[in-house]
Specification:
single chain, alpha+beta, Beta-Lactamase, 4-stranded antiparallel sheet, Heme-binding protein
Length: about 140
């Protein structure tokens, strides 16, 4: 089963509210379990690059089986086991915080949310607010 539009909209609304609360204009993207777009929003004032970064963070989480993107950063540093992996994909990936998996009741990954526009730590807080609303 993949994430539904209704679930995605709930995640977007909660993440949008958190970004507003933090004063961090952001883009928030929700992808399904095939890393395809379900819903996305770009707040007024969010940097243009945040559209692509939110999508790349969500995609990375899906491609890595539901990993939090911030947890992958060390694995892609020079000399680390996955150092060249980013170049192996035709689609952009992001190995910084702000991408989180969305799981169903059984723990299966049904999609991911990505947030872009703030610092990696801010993006992670915004994405987590969306995840919290999905439960």
């Amino acid at each position: 089963m993949s994430i539904t539009l209704t679930q995605a909209q709930r995640i977007i609304a909660a993440a949008d509210a958190k970004a507003t609360e933090l004063g961090v204009p952001s883009s928030i993207t929700v992808l399904d379990d095939g890393a395809r777009l379900v819903a996305s929003v770009r707040q007024d004032g969010a940097p243009l690059v945040s559209i692509d970064s939110s999508f790349a963070k969500a995609r990375t989480s899906v491609y890595f089986g539901g990993a939090a993107t911030g947890d992958l950063a060390a694995a892609v540093q020079p000399g680390a086991p996955l150092y060249t992996l980013g170049a192996a994909s035709n689609e952009p990936l992001a190995f910084v915080a702000g991408g989180l998996p969305i799981t169903d009741e059984s723990g299966a990954v049904i999609g991911a949310v990505g947030s872009g526009g703030g610092t990696p730590d801010q993006d992670a807080v915004i994405a987590q607010a969306g995840i919290d609303a999905a439960r």
